[in-house]
Amino acid sequence: MIAIYSRKSKYTGKGESVENQIQLCREYAIKHLGVGESDIVVYEDEGFSGGNIKRPEFQKLLQDIGHKKISILICYRLDRISRNVADFSGILELLIQNNVDFVSIRESFDTSTPMGKAMVYISSVFAQLERETIAERIRDNMYELAKTGRWLGGAAPLGFESKQMDFTDEDGKDRRYNILSALQEEKTIVQTLFKEFLKLGSISKLQKFTYTHGLKSRNDKDFHINTLKTLLANPVYCVADKNVYKYLSDKGVEIFSPKSEFKGKYGLSCYNKTSKDNKKITRPKDYSEWIVAVAKHEGIISSNDWIKAQNIIANNKDKAIRQVRNPKALLSGLLFCKHCGSHLRPKYHNRKGTSDDDRIFYYICEMKERSRKMRCDVPNISGNYLDKLFLEQLRQMTIDNFDFAQAFDVSANGISSSVSGIDALIDGLNEKLRETDKAIAALVANLAQGSYEKSVVDVIMEQANALTAKKKGIEKEIADLKAQQANSEEIMKSVISVKDALSVINSAFDSLTVFQQRDKLKIIIDKILWDGENIDILLRGT
């Protein structure tokens, strides 16, 4: 089979559409390789970047190459396959291993010749070089702008808004740039947070303070621990003076404003503090990579207070010990307050049980605890009692109970029948698809072999367009059925998992650790709600 691959990024609006790419590749295959439509299979991805190869149709193509289904791969342009040299080299090796020739129409590459193979490698190197050069140029421009102290865009930090300024450059051209401008109400909140943090010495205690005093972040949201930590560590609030200049210099920060500009009035701009890995997880960068300059906005926190806050954060980090999860509370992570939606966490009572292994604990609403009952006052519940009662009730739903077991069997049989029925429907639609393809191919062949008047050609084209529309409709039906089938199979897996978990609960639950027991419960239970008097158990899928 001859494979045609096409890709169009969602970021471009240029005219090289997927349809145009495919048509040009078809014409090349028919004209130069002497093949018919039935010998061509098309793989198309739209809305995906060439920066990586994790594209659904492309992955399917690679699988078919590995299964020896493809003899020649054709694409419109080299970068439709990949813009990454390492990825492309690996793909080319795969093609060679499976005796698949590669043709790129735009660059006139053909790997069936040694020169073509060499040129493909060279072109891929230049494609990546261009990509990396553009990215580097953008980064360099951003860094240079950051050194000027301007606000470079994005959401303004709490306490500020972004304000546009107009100016005329040295060439007489009108220009614009953004600076931060203080918002009085938010500015007061930020100053209060710093003041209280210096008194309390703890971010968790500061969070409780925000609950009890009704302090909210932007958009009326509660302050999260990480939000507070990020806010307190942000140099944007600090007044730029000689004191903070020394502090940052001692930390190894490269400062892009002369010391003479640290006059105790303006704030700081700071960029390149964090980076994101492949999993989009934000990680802090070393101080030496920061870009710091005196900004255009006024600072709102004195350098003494800001530096004190950094020292407290650093000391708390050094003292922090990873909290061990409660080794006794069975329902930890599953129990929620029905009033406010917060988790109920286990908390040990001062009194002990009959032995060290029988600690008395209770579940308490986290919002109630953090807000000191101002935002929620749902009663606590005995953890020892609730865990025991819950397990007794759950074991009554034993897998040996006929009605319960029958319900699982009926559900599994129904899903199995549904999957089989979908298989039959897909087979029928695939047959219709083959018939439609044959009809389209016959029309194209008829048109190619004859010399017809325009009116006849119009009729044939109208028939071809109707068949093409029909084909797309059939393909959509097949795709919808496959999605439905995949969903049914996932439900079947869930049913089997729940059945297996209940079987373990009935037979070997006591031999598991509490952490393993929780994992089994999470397969069955979505959440458990406590309203102060009653418990509602919500099973998964209900």
Structural summary, described in words:
The chain is of the alpha/beta class and 542 residues long. The protein folds into 3 domains: 2-143, Resolvase, N-terminal catalytic domain (Rossmann fold), CATH 3.40.50; 160-319, Putative Large Serine Recombinase, Chain B, Domain 2 (Hect, E3 ligase catalytic domain fold); 402-507, Helix Hairpins (Orthogonal Bundle), CATH 1.10.287.1490. The protein is 49% helix and 17% strand. The protein has 14 helices and 18 strands. The protein has helices at 18-32, 56-66, 85-97, 114-146, 184-200, 203-212, 225-233, 242-250, 303-319, 366-370, 383-396, 402-449, 454-507, 514-524; strands spanning 2-8, 40-46, 72-75, 101-104, 109-110, 160-168, 174-182, 254-255, 266-271, 274-276, 282-284, 291-298, 335-337, 344-348, 361-365, 381-382, 525-530, 535-539. The strands form 6 sheets. Strands 2-1-3-4-5 form a 5-stranded mixed beta sheet, sandwiched between helices. It has a 3-stranded mixed beta sheet with strand order 8-12-9, with helices on one face. Mean pLDDT is 80; it is low at 11-15.
